Structure formats: structure tokens, C-alpha cells
From TrEMBL:
It comes from the Bacteria. One of its GO terms (molecular function) is endonuclease activity. SMART domains: HNHc. This is HNH endonuclease. InterPro entries: HNH_5, HNH_nuc, NA-targeting_endonuclease. It comes from Catellatospora methionotrophica. The lineage of its organism: Bacteria, Bacillati, Actinomycetota, Actinomycetes, Micromonosporales. Pfam families: HNH_5. Residues 69-118 form the HNH nuclease domain.
Length: 147
């Protein structure tokens, strides 16, 4: 049963965990009891209803789908290889061009060399007959960390 609500250090609610998990957090001193059941104790702690993290957790990537988009991140994810020809890439190409509503997202951007970027222009890969060598995906935090 997920009985205990976990609050971030700034009191923003994060998620619910089992009592067991909550006790482990208390024991490891990553969280403290924020609200407890009256007159109930478990070991040395009051029975927690709500626990609060001791240090702030950046929720942007930790709990909500992946790291924030960045040009640098796209190049790191694609290992500076052009998504069209495989050559060294230093620019970002929008799969659906930004002039046509393509956004800065992990799935809509790839690393591309200057030549391919220019040749593709304001076209989709299909229109330009330039198939992608891989499907862009949201990178893991680890991939971005070890660039
Ligand atoms: Zn290229």
C-alpha cells in the first residue's frame, strides 16, 4: 500500500511511497517526518503520514520524463554524428523544420553536418529524400552526463 506522501524540501508534493519505503528514507536520513498519525509510533519514529525530503530534488528530470532539451544535449546524444550522412556534425537539424512548426524537442531534432542541413533546408527527410540513419529519442541522464 502506498500510504505515505513524499514532499520535496520546498513542500511540493512528489509522489506516494509505501510505509516501508518511507521508513527506509527516514532511516537513511534523506527524509524527516512532516506529519504523523496521532498517538502511533513505529520504532523511534511517529507513524508517518507525510515525509519531507531533507534536500531539494530537481523534479524536472527526476520525476517527469527526461532531461530538458538543449542543442548541446542533442549533439551529445548523437555523438556529434550527422543523422543523414554520418559525418561529423556541429549543427542541429529540425526533422520537421521550425519554419513549419517543428519544435525544439528531443524527438524533432538531430545532429547534422552543415552540408546536409543546408541541402535539407525547409523540407522533411521524406521530401528531401534524406532518410534518418536513426530515430531520435529522449536521451537518458547518463548519456548527457558523460559527454
Ligand atoms: Zn551530413
Amino acid at each position: 500500500m502506498n500510504a505515505v506522501l513524499v514532499l520535496n524540501a520546498d513542500l511540493g508534493p512528489l509522489h506516494r511511497v509505501s510505509l516501508r519505503h518511507a521508513l527506509r528514507m527516514l532511516w537513511r536520513q534523506v527524509a524527516v517526518v512532516h506529519e504523523s498519525e496521532p498517538d502511533q509510533a513505529i520504532g523511534v519514529w511517529p507513524m508517518p503520514k507525510v515525509v519531507r525530503l531533507v534536500s531539494y530534488v530537481v523534479t524536472r528530470w527526476r520525476y517527469h520524463g527526461g532531461p530538458a532539451w538543449s542543442r548541446r544535449g542533442v549533439l551529445a546524444r548523437d555523438q556529434h554524428r550527422c543523422a543523414y550522412c554520418g559525418g561529423p556534425a556541429y549543427t542541429i537539424d529540425h526533422v520537421l523544420p521550425s519554419s513549419r512548426g517543428g519544435r525544439n524537442t528531443w524527438l524533432n531534432t538531430v545532429a547534422a553536418c552543415g552540408g546536409c542541413n543546408q541541402r535539407k533546408g525547409d523540407r522533411t527527410p521524406a521530401e528531401a529524400r534524406m532518410p534518418l540513419r536513426f530515430h531520435p529519442a529522449t536521451p537518458s541522464w547518463t548519456v548527457l552526463a558523460k559527454r
